[in-house]
Amino acid sequence: ILQTTYFGVCVLTDLVWLLPQHGKRVQRLCLRISALQDWLFAALAFPIGFFVVVSFWLLYAFDRELVYPKILDQIIPTWMNHAMHSVVLLLLMLELILVPHRWPSHKGGMAVLISFCCSYLLW
């Protein structure tokens, strides 16, 4: 859900920039959405996405029954497994390399990441 939200914000940012009239109001909206996009990427989407992909494949390599039982192979095709658990990292790495981001401060980024993780665990 986090990755979908992030890439949805990316699409929204691009669509707003494509609007034919760039008045002050639209420019401010674009800057705010771009700032939100940068924060989401730096503080949540990249670190959590990277962690989830790496931890999934490490657990899968050691004992796949912990994260993806063999019975699921009959239901979910192999390509879908990779689409869910590999492509995310590829897209994040492409985003990291191709898109210039304004990075938040380390304190701010860590505060957002820790708050999100604590909220997720307490939920």
Automatic annotation (TrEMBL):
* Recorded topology in the membrane: Multi-pass membrane protein
Which intervals of the chain form a coiled coil? none
Question: Which ranges does the record mark as transmembrane?
Answer: 39-62, 82-100
Where in or outside the cell it occurs: the entry states: Endomembrane system
Could you tell me what reaction this enzyme catalyses? Answer: 13-(9Z-hexadecenoyloxy)-octadecanoate + H2O = 13-hydroxy-octadecanoate + (9Z)-hexadecenoate + H(+); 13-octadecanoyloxy-octadecanoate + H2O = 13-hydroxy-octadecanoate + octadecanoate + H(+); 13-(9Z-octadecenoyloxy)-octadecanoate + H2O = 13-hydroxy-octadecanoate + (9Z)-octadecenoate + H(+); 12-(9Z-octadecenoyloxy)-octadecanoate + H2O = 12-hydroxyoctadecanoate + (9Z)-octadecenoate + H(+)
Give the UniProt keywords, A-Z: Membrane, Transmembrane, Transmembrane helix
What is the recorded name of this protein?
Androgen-dependent TFPI-regulating protein
